[in-house]
Write a structure and sequence with these properties.
Belongs to the flavin monoamine oxidase family. By secondary structure, the chain is α/β, with parallel strands linked by helices. It folds into 3 domains: 2-43 and 215-289 and 397-451, FAD/NAD(P)-binding domain, CATH 3.50.50; 45-65 and 80-85 and 206-212 and 291-384, Polyamine Oxidase, Chain A, domain 2; 105-200, Guanine Nucleotide Dissociation Inhibitor, domain 1. It has 16 helices and 21 strands. Helix 1 (15-26) crosses helix 9 and helix 1 (15-26) packs parallel to helix 16 (433-451).
Length: 460
């Protein structure tokens, strides 16, 4: 077993861990970044193809207000490009297609469209009452944490088509059934991004733009600067702390440091053995904030043919094997890429089918929406995050009912010499890459302030 002694050890090389390690190194601290996978990026994963084009298999989009991801891109000279939004989006409800522009499909029945608009307004007003640093202290926290998203939608959405679309769109953010997610958590996560129109929107919202070259164009230069302090294929088994420091161990690596930053999803953090045991509330939080199921499928064509047909590539169909689609073509527009996102119970069901049947079902849906050209892609690439050993599921761990009010205070609180990062711990842009970066910068600042050493200059 190799022994390493450094100032700080960071566990997990997704954006949270990469950022924490980078900022600590830039502040003159020695660091070891330990990653279980044989790659960096965590819940982002950019595949560069032989022709130089690239596919983001995981997190991909950025939007206004996400200042920390933009700051990293500026730092490493990575440009952005706008998401393609020209043309009409499409909703499919009960087999009928509705084309529209904007956030709400006004081409639906006036009653359904009005109901959608009213729910959006109500959600926005509720989000304004959530204290981002302590959502459990909201005036109605106990009430909202006692009910699920499904319960709230059932009580407040009177149109069946509007209900089905909202349940698909909102519950999809948490890659779980609406019955699994606390309404307080939904409001907190939405509020952290500025409200429902940002979370569920595209233009000037959560899917406004993308880095040229994909997320890998950002995380690769970060790793290059971290250099040989990065240790891949080292799943951490245990973390022991004492009065002088911590010891982080994998099968063949032992890192001794003053403090550790654990920057992995909560369910994955629960698989590490801690000595002594973590405080009860933190331990229970690990048990109670799971991830959900999500499949992200890139369907490639010679060109984005839907654009010529007046379509943006954005579509939604509740309970469909291609629940959500969006144009995921590169900045050059070649090849054309339709990204299919399937979440929650539908993703679990789709994952049980043989690969050939999954592909057949997805392409049939795309053909029904976009025409016969959709039936013959040049490539078809699946990423099933539900079975990623070191992700544990979807893009964001979620809180079921009762969890935030009981255990939320443990989300960011250090446990002795163990500190926590990850997008779930960010009070701003919780659930996005930007939130992960913010959490890494916070954790880097936190450990240095505890030790009375120079704080990382970039930490916000």
């Amino acid at each position: 077993m190799a022994d390493i002694e450094v100032d700080y050890c960071v566990v997990g090389a997704g954006f949270a861990g990469l950022t924490a390690a980078l900022r600590l190194k830039q502040a003159g601290q020695s660091v070891a970044l330990v990653e279980a996978r044989d790659r960096i990026g965590g819940r982002t994963f950019t595949e560069v193809r032989e022709d130089g084009s690239w596919i983001d298999r995981g997190g991909a989009w950025i939007g206004p207000g996400q200042d920390r991801i933009y700051a990293l891109m500026d730092e490493f000279g990575v440009k952005s490009y706008k998401q393609y939004t020209d043309g009409e989006a499409m909703m499919v409800v009960d087999g009928k297609q509705y084309r529209y522009k904007g956030t709400i499909p006004l081409t639906m029945s006036p009653w359904a469209a009005a109901n959608l608009g009213a729910v959006f307004v109500e959600l926005g007003e509720m989000c304004k009452t959530i204290p981002l640093d302590a959502p459990w202290e909201a005036k109605k926290a106990a009430k909202w944490d006692s009910i699920s998203l499904a319960k709230w939608l059932g009580d407040n959405t009177l149109s069946t088509p509007a209900h089905d679309l909202l349940e698909t769109a909102i519950a999809g953010c948490y890659t779980s059934a609406a019955s699994e997610v606390s309404m307080l958590f939904v409001l907190y996560q939405m509020a952290s991004g500025g409200g429902p129109r940002f979370v569920l929107g595209v233009k000037d919202a959560a899917e406004d733009a993308r880095p040229v070259g994909g997320m890998g164009a950002v995380y690769r230069p970060m790793a290059a600067e971290i250099g040989d302090a990065l240790h891949l294929s080292q799943p951490v088994r245990d973390i022991a702390q004492d009065g002088d420091g911590v010891t982080v161990r994998s099968a063949d690596l032992a890192v001794r440091a003053r403090r550790a930053i654990v920057a992995v999803p909560l369910a994955i953090a629960s698989q590490i053995v801690y000595e002594p045991l973590l405080p009860m509330d933190r331990s229970f939080l690990h048990q109670r904030m799971p991830s959900g199921a999500v499949m992200k499928i890139a369907v490639l064509y010679d060109e984005p043919f839907w654009r010529a047909a007046g379509l943006s590539g954005q579509s939604a169909a509740p309970d469909s094997p291609a629940t959500i689609t969006i144009d995921a073509s590169t900045d050059t527009g070649r090849p054309g890429v339709l990204c299919v996102i399937v979440e929650g119970p539908i993703a679990r069901k789709l994952g049980t089918l043989p690969e050939a049947e999954r592909r057949k079902a997805v392409l049939a849906e795309l053909t029904a929406r976009f025409g016969n050209k959709a039936a013959s892609p040049v490539d078809y690439i699946e990423q099933n995050w539900s079975v990623e050993r070191y992700s544990g599921g979807g893009m964001l761990s979620h809180a079921p009912t009762g969890v935030l009010t009981q255990f939320g205070r443990a989300l960011r609180k250090p446990c002795g010499r163990i500190h926590w990062a990850g997008t779930e711990s960010s009070s701003v842009m919780c659930g996005w890459v930007d939130g992960a970066i913010r959490s890494g910068e916070r954790a880097a600042r936190e450990v240095t302030e505890h030790d009375g050493v120079l704080s990382p200059a970039h930490a916000q």
